[in-house]
Amino acid sequence: MTHFRKRLTLLGSTVAFAATAIVPTQIAGASSAAAASYEWVALGDSYTAGVIPAAGDTFEIPRDGCERTDRSYPQVMDRDLGALIDLTNVSCGAATIEDITSRAQEPIGRHLPPFSQDPDYPFPAVPPQSSAVSATTNVITVGAGGNTLGFADILMKCLELGQSNEGKGTPCKDDLGAGIPARLAKVSSDYDKMLTVLHERGPKAKILAVGYPTVIPNDTAKCTRNNWQQFGSITSGDLAWLRTDVLEPFNQAIEKSAGSHDATSYVNLYDSSANHSVCDTSNWVEGVLSSNLEPALVHPNAAGHRNAADHVTNAVLNSLDPS
After folding, report:
1. CA distances from 229 to 52, 72, 99, 175, 211 (A)
2. What is the CATH number of the domain that holds 151?
3. What is the pTM of this model?
4. Residue 299 class from Cβ within 10 Å (0-12 exposed, 13-18 middle, 19+ buried)?
5. Residue 22 lies in a domain
6. pLDDT band at 35, cuts 50/70/90?
7. 7 FRET partner, CA 20 to 30 A, in 15, 16, 130, 219?
8. 308 domain-assigned
9. How many domains is the chain built from?
């Protein structure tokens, strides 16, 4: 038995690895007095941090504007894994890949006019997230790229054009389609640079590049026009375009970048969430507004983060003990 499995036994936990299924690992009963065996740094944007109320409550006092929530997947995993891993979570809403690599970020909190005003805005800048990685880091998880792609801006433009086009055709594709390859190329280039920096800062760390979940169903007829708990005024044709020409190639770009770097693995969240899009009854991603009519702007809810936690946990445990 390896040292890793001995450690799990000491923690009073059982880990099951399956080739075809994810088995969530629960180590919530681990002794809080035990020293952590591994150092884990969680990096990423709002899909990691949580941000929206449907992903839990912010827990940091005073707030730094990054809006990490207690039901986001890093925090879920921190509770599940107990004393096995010492988590440093520096993920931050609205972070670009460059904010992780080298640039200090000015967080926006929940200041999203005209949807919401944040009374604590503006917030002081936070350091580049990569500065949290060190020579002693064992595992790095990173979920980023959506803000480099400019998905929020694309979403807003599609809402605007869908409204003015009365729900017909593909006005967003017609307006933005030609620029998507350049956006995807920017994601790939920045992602490669980020992984290089992370490897340099954490030379012994295993890096897990976490992909994005399904947000638009294969059958866009599931989405009801002008339902703001889904995609509001975006046309059915533009939803199909966003899925096939933007979001799926976006995940593929991240996977390809991960595959080109040693000690880096890709965590696929897209396939497992295929039947839990914004427009599915059992949705793991909220729409423009959440089920409570709060601004959500197409972000995972607690159920989506629970799914991410299961898959990322499995990847973390396998990366630490690949035997």
Report:
1. 14, 20, 30, 25, 23
2. 3.40.50.1110
3. 0.90
4. buried
5. no
6. low
7. 130
8. yes
9. 1
